[in-house]
Design goal:
single chain, 297 residues, alpha/beta, Nucleotidyltransferase, domain 5, 5-stranded mixed beta sheet, 13 helices, globular, Euk-type_GlcNAc_Kinase, BadF/BadG/BcrA/BcrD ATPase family protein
């Protein structure tokens, strides 16, 4: 076995897990992407995704994972890692790496977005939340998971669409082209069939409906507009809370963020910026420059 010349940063979310190989100067070398890594929902799936994404990244860096994995320091920002039960399970994980340090994906995102400087972030992916970084202190707003929060996220947009479609069948709200499209796409002709199709779906699968909702809103579909506007009413508030703590700009992060940006308030859009560094970079920076505890978990 050889001493690893690399560091690994990981960004694990509800839909995918991305690992980046960095050199000693924190320059990215190669990436690998695997499946979902929300550790508060499916810890074993998340652990498998972490390992797979790292192995893929190493392969793309031109090295043999079997040779380097046992000597790798890994730093991860993971969805759900702020939940005590998930944190405990990760701490007890007999991982294959030299060391494995983890924090919330929100922490790594806000640190990466502003390259370690003060600022705010609005994450709109499978889940949603906002955060501020000020004087090396991070404050979170939202991000309580699919069942209890994540309003405005991709998963929430998809779930809202299914709920509106069911209500349209009951005559609670008028149907629209969007709700009809949902029934057609999933070959459902009754409320029972739609419930059966979605009752056991994961947040990541609900999030697959988000592009349909956003496209419908762009076409002025009334239900699409209602869902997107309700989402942005919430996102505007948590983004503003984060900005009040940090000042400066707001980085938009997540697979749905740019698509939903046109519906955010003009005041929020005016301070939006692109991330300076990746969440994977942010995970490395957090443990090297901000965190002062025992990072070898």
């Amino acid at each position: 076995m050889h001493q690893s010349p690399f560091l690994i940063g990981v960004d694990g979310g509800g839909t995918k897990c991305k690992a980046t190989v960095f050199d000693a100067d924190l320059n990215p070398v190669a990436d690998g992407v695997a499946g979902p890594a929300n550790v508060s929902r499916e810890i074993q799936v998340a652990q498998q995704s972490i390992v797979e994404s790292i192995e893929l990244a190493l392969q793309r860096a031109g090295v043999d994972p079997a040779d380097l994995v046992p000597n790798l320091p890994v730093y991860a920002g993971l969805a759900g890692a702020n939940i005590a039960s998930a944190s405990g399970a990760l701490s007890a994980w007999h991982h294959p790496f030299k060391s494995f340090a983890f924090t919330s994906d929100l922490y790594s995102a806000v640190i990466g977005a502003h390259a370690g400087k003060d600022g705010s972030v609005l994450i709109v992916g499978t889940g949603s939340c906002a955060a501020s970084l000020h004087a090396n202190k991070i404050q979170q707003f939202g991000g309580y998971g699919f069942l209890l929060g994540d309003k405005g996220s991709g998963a929430w947009l998809g779930k809202a669409l299914v709920s509106y479609a069911l209500n349209s069948i009951d005559g609670v709200v008028p149907e629209s082209d969007l709700t009809c499209q949902l029934f057609d796409n999933y070959e459902c002709n009754s409320a029972e069939m739609l419930v059966d199709a979605f009752n056991q779906r994961s947040p990541a699968l609900f999030a697959q409906l988000a592009p349909m909702v956003i496209e419908a809103a762009q076409q002025k579909d009334p239900i699409g507009l209602t869902i997107v506007n309700e989402a942005c009413d919430y996102l505007n508030i948590i983004a503003d809370h984060a900005l009040q703590r940090s000042g400066g700009s707001l980085a938009l992060v997540g697979g749905v963020a740019n698509a939903i940006r046109p519906w955010l308030s003009p005041a929020i859009q005016a301070v939006c910026c692109s991330p300076k560094e990746s969440p994977e970079w942010g995970a490395l920076y957090y443990f090297q420059h901000i965190y002062h505890g025992d990072s070898d978990v």
